[in-house]
Amino acid sequence: MTPPERPVDVAVVGAGPAGIAAAVAARRAGARGVLLIDRDRLGGIMRQCIHAGFGIERYGEELTGPEYIARDIETMEAEGVEAMLGTMVLDLSPDRVLTVSSAGGVSRLRAGAVVLAMGCRERTRENVMIPGTRPAGVYTAGAAQNLMNLRNIMVGRRVVVLGSGDVGLIMARRMVLEGAEVACVAEVMPVPGGLARNVRQCLDDLGIPLLLGHTAVEVRGEGRVSSVVLARVGEDLLPVPGTEMEVECDTLLLSVGLIPENELSSRAGIELDPATGGPVVDGSFMTNVPGVFACGNALHVHDVADWVSEEGAEAGRSAARWLSGDAPDWPFEVAAGRGLRYALPHRSGPGGVVKLRVSEPARDADIVGVVGSTEVFRKRFARAVPSEMLRVELPEWLDNVERLILEVERG
Amino acid sequence: MEAYDVAVIGAGVVGSFVARDLSRYDLRTVVLEAGPDAASGASRGNSGVVHAGFFSVPSTLKAEMCVSGSRMYEGICRDLGVPFSRCGKIVTVHSGAESEMDRLERLLVYGEASGIGDLRIVDGGEARSIEPGIDCRAALVSPSSAIVSPYETTIAAAEDACVNGVRFMLGARVSSASREGPPEDPAHIITAGDGRSVRARAVVNAAGLSSGRVAAMFGLEGFTVHPCRGEYLLLDKAVGGLINGMVYPLAPEGESTLGVHLTPTVAGHILVGPTVEFIGEASAATTASRHAEMLAAAHALLPPISKRHVIKAFAGLRAKLVPEGGTTAYGDVDFAVEESPAGVVHLLGIESPGLTAAPALAGWVVPMLLSHLGGADLKGPTDVVRYRWPYTTPPATAGDRALGERAVMAAADPDRGAVVCRCEHVTRADILRALDNPLGAKGLDAVKFRTRARMGRCQGGFCLPRIADILVDERDLHPSSVRMSSAGSEPFAGWVKEGGAGR
Ligand SMILES: Cc1cc2nc3c(=O)[nH]c(=O)nc-3n(C[C@H](O)[C@H](O)[C@H](O)COP(=O)(O)OP(=O)(O)OC[C@H]3O[C@@H](n4cnc5c(N)ncnc54)[C@H](O)[C@@H]3O)c2cc1C
Ligand SMILES: Cc1cc2nc3c(=O)[nH]c(=O)nc-3n(C[C@H](O)[C@H](O)[C@H](O)COP(=O)(O)OP(=O)(O)OC[C@H]3O[C@@H](n4cnc5c(N)ncnc54)[C@H](O)[C@@H]3O)c2cc1C
């Protein structure tokens, strides 16, 4: 049996802030979009982020995740964007045929353009290879957040949090507010992974100890976690023998990094950047597969949802523009040089915006643009940390350039 | 106390196949399993390889059972509705040293003596045409070596037995046995740790790691089983395409096992392992040092493999009849199958290739039981009910045919269109069916080992909350009574807000 097939202008995969913004923008630019989402509700990760802290850049006010996304959903409905809920995209082909599965059956969409906005997934215990037994009670922080905030299900009573990313910090606080005890937050790096504001509000204010330079070396317990063994790490980030300490707990929450979700991208033959884990894109957010665009956490992990929405809108606009036959030229390659973890998009042009992350924290860091061996511009940041994305606008006069390298110079 | 013709102790792959064969006769059979589900022991944690048989010394029970078991597997998997893939195997040598070539040659000779007709030794160039990612000097090629999902096969065999009339008692760890009745036809009273007991005329001891202890309960002394841990790393499907079949570097001389190798899984991952470590106390914990050992070995064979591809670490325990240092070359310690007293059959030391050998072992043991119970008077084999047919929805990534099958299934049943698990494409229908499994196995792990939900790269991050919805909202379970497997493995501590809505 061959599944039935239906043509659409723009198919958007994923309905978090990126996907919703993309679908709205594509619609406003005149394309008829369809939003595909595996869940029964719109909003993606925003739905479970019930704390305030969203919308500062976009609206100048602090909203919770659900409040933030409600505004976008309203706009989307007003614009008449079609959403297919409970629809999992199983496959994407290089000629933009999506195979989808839902309670309505298995079918195909032949899309003029595709926007990928699948978000990201969390690194698991296995990704960081913590040895030991395999009892219940080991959760990624986002999964625990989902269970507690969307399902009213409590995951544990005495908790060790591994990793000080924002999700981990926020969950440490959440657990305490719900009556659990948080023994500590352990972080392998010498600096916290999340925003300084979150360290203060989530740990310091509640007296939760933060153990920097520590990692988990063993999980113990048969049915349920009974303890976690932590150890100090050396400069090589490996555990130092003899520094182990056993912390009794029934829960281990992991906030050890996010990975862009790109199973579909790989299936379609889209090239991925090992540094971001997301697709290689040009200034229109188009991947190497013509007509397929990527944005949001599927492209690179963001720390502020407002920028996700902005990126989604740009990708959606570009997709509509591409449909009408207008594909801008991105004359030069952009590469991350010394001191940068990544720079994105991978092709740009004069006046383009580049998003980047530094490898090491620095005060007064200069981002320097280099062509050949010549410096062509520089921009100073009073503060540059790996956990916060930086944005640099490229000068309009960059001409006749083939490859622009961006580097960090410490002030 | 309920009376049975046969009691099978242990629902690993051996016990489950024995039970399945017995279900074809007009017999009352019970299976007592210590764990919360079938496949709670070695049959859960192994490589899943259907060995052709050339690793075993010809004419041993191991070799004979392995060769005949391997020939039965494809048909059995079709009947059970579980995946089977004849992906082939190469055994590689890397130094090209004469001693290595001699040992490779020996495998060929072993294999041929055991009646395996399709083996050949090729040079590195030809090996590359089979496995483009592998650099070696020479290789033994075994096209008929195959892979299965060991836990799915075991569970499917048990479920098949169950729907055909065999009774399963889960969580029943046999702790003692006694005899009553006339000496020429005694009945065995078998009692579990929780006090439940059954009476049976014949008994099969397929208790894996505990088989020595169980044998002693029936008066057969002298078998000590030594647990020997094998750890594994499971790699993301993203690198699954780097090999076509199994890649086994020839193990060093004198190794009692096959060494760390690469095995594709039927779901498209790569399994790295197993390591070898005799341990005092049976624990399937994993260790940092073995992780490092396996990563190094995998990387040496296939350079693109690195730490970031690991999605799961686990371990299985071999049931060895010799302690550490007690073996000299692989295959030299045979399986032990002992009938003592009459009508009580013990399967001891069923280590690798026990998965492969299981259907053949069942085919050997069952006639022993039948003859004890009265042989020709028994009715059977009878027609059977098929439980898992058609089986769990095939992964859409398995190609057009699988997709077509999904489309047909989804057209007939909306639950077969609704995808719950993003990584393995498991549907709501599969989850519901697993929850209602005929064995009565409870808990999230019963779902996991039947559907693969929570086994993919997110390890449950996405689908656990959605499966929890089904249990809590639709099945009305209080969150704190949800279990992973046995009592004590509860993942949830209750409601966040008592009296708050579920959602
Ligand atoms: C666990 C977690 C917690 C976070 N907490 C915070 C926070 O507290 N504060 C903060 O500022 N930021 C937080 N973030 C980051 C912020 O939520 C993200 O920046 C933002 O939600 C990303 O939006 P997105 O649209 O790219 O992805 P998402 O919001 O993740 O949406 C993607 C959607 O696509 C769907 N999808 C994926 N694959 C498919 C498919 N094959 N078919 C159909 N649908 C599919 C997913 O189900 C999901 O709903 C968090 C992120 C995560 C992962
Ligand atoms: C690391 C490793 C890799 C392997 N790789 C392969 C391979 O690739 N190919 C292959 O053919 N073979 C392989 N094997 C061997 C294979 O896994 C075993 O031979 C096979 O699973 C043994 O099955 P079993 O039923 O005898 O034992 P088990 O699966 O261990 O089953 C025994 C059952 O008995 C139960 N039990 C124990 N005590 C009691 C009691 N007192 N009362 C009631 N129940 C009890 C246990 O809970 C368990 O479920 C491997 C083994 C290991 C450990």
Characterize this entry briefly.
The complex is a heterodimer of chains A (411) and B (503). Chain A is α/β, with parallel strands linked by helices and 411 residues long.
E-strand count of chain A: 28
Mean pLDDT of chain B: 92
Mean pLDDT of chain A: 95
The number of helical runs of chain B is 12
Q: Are any ligands bound, and if so which? A: flavin-adenine dinucleotide
Proportion of strand residues of chain B: 15-25%
Low-confidence regions of chain B: none
Considering the chains and any ligands shown, give keywords for the structure.
heterodimer; A: 411 residues; alpha/beta; FAD/NAD(P)-binding domain; 3 domains; 5-stranded parallel beta sheet; 8 helices; 28 strands; 21% helix; B: 503 residues; alpha+beta; 8-stranded mixed beta sheet; 5-stranded antiparallel beta sheet; 30% helix; globular; binds flavin-adenine dinucleotide
Describe this structure in words.
The complex is a heterodimer of chains A (411) and B (503). Chain A has 411 residues and is an alpha/beta fold. Chain A folds into three domains: 182 residues, 3-Layer(bba) Sandwich (FAD/NAD(P)-binding domain); 133 residues, FAD/NAD(P)-binding domain, CATH 3.50.50.60; 78 residues, no CATH class. Chain A is 21% helix and 35% strand. In chain A, strands 1, 2, 5, 6, 7, 8 and 20 form a seven-stranded mixed sheet that branches. In chain A, helix 1 runs parallel beside helix 8 and helix 5 packs parallel to helix 6. The model of chain A has no long low-confidence stretch (mean pLDDT 95). By secondary structure, chain B is an alpha+beta fold. Helix content of chain B is 30%, strand content 22%. Chain B is built from twelve helices and 23 strands. In chain B, the strands form five sheets. In chain B, strands 1, 2, 9, 10, 11, 12, 19 and 20 form an eight-stranded mixed sheet that branches. In chain B, strands 13, 15, 16, 17 and 18 form a five-stranded antiparallel sheet that branches. In chain B, a hairpin with a 4-residue loop joins strand 11 and strand 12. In chain B, helix 2 packs across helix 8. In chain B, 57% of the residues are buried. The model of chain B has no long low-confidence stretch (mean pLDDT 92). Strand 11 of chain A pairs antiparallel with strand 23 of chain B, so a sheet runs across the interface. The structure holds flavin-adenine dinucleotide (2 copies). One flavin-adenine dinucleotide binds next to helix 1, strand 3, strand 6, strand 9 and helix 4 of chain A.
